[in-house]
């Protein structure tokens, strides 16, 4: 079967399929690596054109989480869960409890959290069936909403980017385009407005876009027009694979840095950005604030500690840019090098080493 050929090429530790007809659950849980610790990653719920597309998304997201955790200095590996369904219509208590039972069967190898199309209420339903879930209500020791911490880390990361392109100090007076106004994008837009940034944004849900306009006073454009906005920094904060040979030539910015995962349609597309003089902040480094937030729950959540850890994204990116410059490689390659070095070095302590 084609699906098994894809799995052989992916080099993941484990991929499992969850099906519960009564609960309406059709899901995939991918564990890329547990070298640094149990795999952690969000649960995505969205409509996929095919089961193959859902599998590809799970594999890509879990791979990205391994590198994100490694680059952030966290003792976790990478995993992901994807639910095939419409988050606007198909959510039920039974569905998430069924997923929780499946996660429980993995015996702690995978810890889930909020992701695209899921929220804190969904995590609470999963928690009924398993303790291997974070992104919970504060009453249960959770951060509830990682968006403010992700935005705080993003602001720190943006400062590093601006220094790299010889701009700054500070964000005030800049123009930034934000693609996607979900929890992450709206949180970033709010932080940018507070920093004196002119924000131009979009969202496929016109109601969501209008709400952000009303609350923040930002400019809203059509989703397809966001690629043509003249700005200092272009921030992809929705779905992945939005940077490709068709969209990159349309960008008019100095920096691409956003909170979406897997922003490049293909890894080699980073060269298209570099050829146009656009600095790329590797997504799994720049957007690690949300992961930092939920992993803090495991030790006992502290907002002050989480915010401080998220500020470390500034230093992470500075190191990425330095390695890219010193070795004459792209920023994406430099981020991979640093993540793989940590996986190899720390994994070597236990004699367990896996990297791409």
Provide structural commentary.
The protein is an alpha/beta fold and 356 residues long. It has 2 domains: 2-58 and 75-133, Rossmann fold (3-Layer(aba) Sandwich), CATH 3.40.50; 147-288 and 317-335, Rossmann fold (3-Layer(aba) Sandwich), CATH 3.40.50. Helix content is 43%, strand content 16%. The protein is built from 13 helices and 11 strands. It has helices at residues 2-10, 51-71, 93-104, 120-127, 147-164, 183-194, 206-216, 270-275, 283-286, 289-299, 303-310, 313-327, 331-349; strands at residues 14-20, 25-33, 39-46, 77-84, 110-114, 175-179, 198-202, 219-220, 233-236, 255-256, 279-280. The strands form 2 sheets. The protein has a 6-stranded parallel sheet. A 5-stranded mixed sheet has the order 1-2-4-3-5, with helices on both faces. Helix 2 links the parallel strand 3 and strand 4 (77-84). Helix 3 (93-104) crosses helix 4 and helix 12 crosses helix 13 (331-349). It is globular and about 55 Å long.
Helix-strand makeup class: alpha/beta
Provide the domain count.
2
Which strand order does the major sheet show? Answer: 8-7-6-9-10-11
Q: What is the 3D form?
A: globular
Unreliable stretches covering 5 or more consecutive residues = none
- Head-to-tail CA distance between termini: 24 Å
Number of helices: 13
- Which whole number gives the mean pLDDT? 93
> What oligomeric state is this?
single chain
Percent helix? 40-55%
**Strand runs, count:** 11
SSE layout:
Layout: H1 2-10, E1 14-20, E2 25-33, E3 39-46, H2 51-71, E4 77-84, H3 93-104, E5 110-114, H4 120-127, H5 147-164, E6 175-179, H6 183-194, E7 198-202, H7 206-216, E8 219-220, E9 233-236, E10 255-256, H8 270-275, E11 279-280, H9 283-286, H10 289-299, H11 303-310, H12 313-327, H13 331-349
Parallel strand pairs: 3-4, 3-5, 6-7, 6-9, 7-8, 9-10, 10-11
Antiparallel strand pairs: 1-2, 2-4
Helix pairs in contact: 1-2, 2-13, 3-4, 5-6, 5-10, 5-11, 5-12, 10-11, 12-13
């Amino acid at each position: 079967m084609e699906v098994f050929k894809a799995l052989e090429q992916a080099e993941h530790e484990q991929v499992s399929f969850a099906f519960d007809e009564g609960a309406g659950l059709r899901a995939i849980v991918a564990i890329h690596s547990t070298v640094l610790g149990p795999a952690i990653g969000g649960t995505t719920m969205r409509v996929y054109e095919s089961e193959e597309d859902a599998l590809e998304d799970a594999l890509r997201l879990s791979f990205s989480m391994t590198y994100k955790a490694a680059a952030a200095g966290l003792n976790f590996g990478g995993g992901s869960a994807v639910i095939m369904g419409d988050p606007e219509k198909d959510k039920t208590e039974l569905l998430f409890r069924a997923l929780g039972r499946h996660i429980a069967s993995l015996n702690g190898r995978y810890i889930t959290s909020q992701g695209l199309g899921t929220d804190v209420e969904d995590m609470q339903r999963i928690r009924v069936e398993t303790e291997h879930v974070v992104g919970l209500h504060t009453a249960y020791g959770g951060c509830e909403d990682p968006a403010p911490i992700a935005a705080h880390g993003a602001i720190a990361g943006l400062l590093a980017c601006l220094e790299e392109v010889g701009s700054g100090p500070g964000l005030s007076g800049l123009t930034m385009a934000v693609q996607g106004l979900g929890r992450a994008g709206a949180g970033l837009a709010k932080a940018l407005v507070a920093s004196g940034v002119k924000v131009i944004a979009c969202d496929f849900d016109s109601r969501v876009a209008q709400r952000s306009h009303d609350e923040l006073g930002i400019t809203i454009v059509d989703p397809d027009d966001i690629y043509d906005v003249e700005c200092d920094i272009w921030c992809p904060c929705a779905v992945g694979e939005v940077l490709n040979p068709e969209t990159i030539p349309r960008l008019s910015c100095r920096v691409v840095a956003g909170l979406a995962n897997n922003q490049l349609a293909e890894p080699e597309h980073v060269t298209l950005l570099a050829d146009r003089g656009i600095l790329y902040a590797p997504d799994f480094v720049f957007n690690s604030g949300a992961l930092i937030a939920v992993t803090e729950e495991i030790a006992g959540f502290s907002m002050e500690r989480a915010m401080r850890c998220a500020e470390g994204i500034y230093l992470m990116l500075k190191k990425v840019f330095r390695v890219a410059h010193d070795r004459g490689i792209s920023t994406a390659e430099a981020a991979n090098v640093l993540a793989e070095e940590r996986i190899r070095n720390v994994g070597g302590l236990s004699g367990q080493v896996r990297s791409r």
